[in-house]
Amino acid sequence: MSEPLFSKKNLKLLSDPLNDSNPITVQVLGICSALAVTAQLKPSIVMALSVAAVLAFSNVIISLLRNTIPNRIRIIVQLVVIAALVILVDQVLKAYVYDVSKQLSVFVGLIITNCIIMGRLEAFALGNRPWQSFLDGIGNAAGYGVILIVVGFFRELLGSGSLLGFKIIPDSWYIANGGFYENNGLMVLSPMALIVVGIIIWVQRSRNSKLIEN
Amino acid sequence: MDRNSNTYTFLYAAIMVIIVAAVLASVSMALKPAQKKNVAIEKKQNILASVNIESTAATAEAIYAEKIIGEYVVTVKGEQVEGDAFTTDLKKERAKDAADMLLPVFEVKTDDGLKYVLPLYGAGLWGPVWGYVSLSDDMNTIYGANFDHEGETPGLGAEISTTAFEAPFKGKKIFDESGKLVSILVAKVGQVAPEEHKVDAISGGTITSKGLEQMLQDDFTAYEEFLNKKK
């Protein structure tokens, strides 16, 4: 353990998933929840935080247990750890942010099946030390969360004219009040989330030369 | 110990399950009071919503205390009996014989006069659906409705909890001119009924719509004697 906590290699674990190996735009994992919960900004943020909590802690727990887990039941052990953490998150949401928990409803439960989490446990936590696994978990959750929040931002702004529930577009702009503006109803529906994710991938690929295939 | 032996694997799995179960059980117990309070507040919000009073989680309790002037339980014969209307578990009551069933009633003071809120409970496609319907004091005209569900399909059956579905209930009548209970038809295309006894069903949410219609029919029937007495 002579390596410093935030060595260059460790920082790369945090920063890589934000761009070069982003779980959503590059690895195309966790798309389902990215489409489902991003109609508004608030659930997007809560979902991002929930996934971050589950991913970071399950990565650490699996990493701590990695030398004891029987190989034949390792997938089951991973699932038990993920499922237990997801239930904890769900219970906490129900107790303290009930309205958000109602909006997320089944999607919190679906964190269990979020491919990012099992993917990181199998690919990283089983073979690395807890601290590195923690950073990897936070990094990947951040990469996931950034996309969720960007998508949620545009969908709520253009679809409902508000951000975090606060009106951004003045009421007098709307056609109903004699103005010129109308919210784009399509933005609220899931297909538009896919298109927004597509646009993000397009922008990212055109700017990042490493991602351009020959 | 050999990590690949059967004994190790079984022991590992058993211990893991016990630890996880203990952790989850204790967290669930610790958070139960806060969760129950949230559910109660939501119920108050829903009851208020059925008489078209909007409230937030923060204001619901105060508004509820001010507007609700009576809570009581009646039997299918329409007689008032002892019981707490707010905590009556509709799921349990609906499983009983009709004679033993307890039916909660809430009396609400609104700007348009006294309204009676009847809680309803029935089956949708994937799970239970429930709601609150408020009647004006002629015990016939619907003043407002609020529906909710446990797990209906988002975008289809789940639409029953939207204003678009709930608003048309306002002004509908549940008794016909001769005083016979007809309830409300949740109509698909081609179903004919007098305009004052029907609302439009949800496209693609047929089974939820039919379940909701059945719920209205069953529960208004249960309350029929009570409604007739109050007329």
UniProtKB/TrEMBL annotation, chain A:
Recorded topology in the membrane: Multi-pass membrane protein
GO molecular function, one term: oxidoreductase activity, acting on NAD(P)H, quinone or similar compound as acceptor
Group of enzyme by EC: translocase
Residue ranges of the TM segments: 45-65, 77-98, 104-121, 133-154, 185-203
Methyltransferase listed as a keyword: no
Signal peptide: none
EC number(s) per entry: 7.2.1.1
CC per GO annotation: endomembrane system; plasma membrane
Subcellular location: Cell membrane; Endomembrane system
Entry superkingdom: Bacteria
Principal location class: membrane
InterPro entries given in the database record: NqrD, NqrDE/RnfAE
This protein's UniProt keywords: Cell inner membrane, Cell membrane, Ion transport, Membrane, NAD, Sodium, Sodium transport, Translocase, Transmembrane, Transmembrane helix, Transport, Ubiquinone
Family: Belongs to the NqrDE/RnfAE family.
Subunit structure: Composed of six subunits; NqrA, NqrB, NqrC, NqrD, NqrE and NqrF.
Function: NQR complex catalyzes the reduction of ubiquinone-1 to ubiquinol by two successive reactions, coupled with the transport of Na(+) ions from the cytoplasm to the periplasm. NqrA to NqrE are probably involved in the second step, the conversion of ubisemiquinone to ubiquinol.
Protein name per Swiss-Prot or TrEMBL: Na(+)-translocating NADH-quinone reductase subunit D
Organism: Draconibacterium aestuarii
UniProtKB/TrEMBL annotation, chain B:
One Gene Ontology cellular component annotation held by this UniProt entry: plasma membrane
GO molecular function, one term: oxidoreductase activity, acting on NAD(P)H, quinone or similar compound as acceptor
Location relative to the cell: Cell membrane
Residues recorded as bearing FMN phosphoryl threonine in the entry: 206
Gene Ontology biological process terms in this record: sodium ion transport
Catalytic activity reported: a ubiquinone + n Na(+)(in) + NADH + H(+) = a ubiquinol + n Na(+)(out) + NAD(+)
EC number: 7.2.1.1
Similarity section: Belongs to the NqrC family.
Quaternary structure annotation from Swiss-Prot or TrEMBL: Composed of six subunits; NqrA, NqrB, NqrC, NqrD, NqrE and NqrF.
Protein name: Na(+)-translocating NADH-quinone reductase subunit C
Organism: Draconibacterium aestuarii
Name of encoding gene: nqrC
